[in-house]
Design goal:
Elements lengths: L10 E5 L2 H12 L2 E5 L3 E5 L7 E5 L17 E6 L2 H15 L5 E4 L3 E7 L5 E7 L4 H10 L1 H5 L4 E2 L2 H9 L4 H9 L16 H5 L3
Parallel strand pairs: 1-4, 5-8
Antiparallel strand pairs: 2-3, 3-4, 6-7, 6-9, 7-8
The structure holds fe (ii) ion (FE2).
The site of fe (ii) ion has 3 residues, from strand 5.
Length: 201
Amino acid sequence: MPTIKPVFHHATFKTSRLQEMIDWYKKVIGVTVTFQDANNAWTTNDAANHRIAFLMVPELSDDPEKVRHNGLHHTAFEYDSFDDLMASYERMRDEEGIMPAFSLHHGLTISIYYRDPEGNYVELQSDAFGDWAKSTEWMRTSEDFRGNPIGTFFDPQKVLEAHRGGRSFEALSPAMRQGDFVPDAIPNIGLPEPEAVTRGL
Ligand SMILES: [Fe+2]
């Protein structure tokens, strides 16, 4: 019998900072609260009843070794365009003081990662091809992706300035991928031994 495929619907976080988490996801991805009580909240940023939910239990605590423990690395949200991604980077920086943790050109997507108040990463991305079928085919078949599946770091500020200076996305994208906009310092991506990871080991 064939598998009936359900559609991915939501992620739920355990937290000890309920309101702080709700407020952060409001600022970053524009969620609204569908229902909230003293210890729980269900939020969404689209037509679904909830996409990101939070369950608060008094005994919960932070994991100081989170980076070294198994579990979810990040959730991800996609904009319709590179311009929307960069406009959101600029809005968060200027209006909320929220800065990226690191940014990677994955080849298939341009991705800016943020760290929520409890150390969970949120990836904000736009499709490098503007078309899921094309980016999927590129992932499956390109030697470029095989050789660099994690991605190339970029500094979003440098990219934004180049874009505002007149360089189109079509010109910027391959330049970002080949490393023309690497940050001054290579950031930690929230995994042990990031050097090994970026080598694709
Ligand atoms: Fe991702």
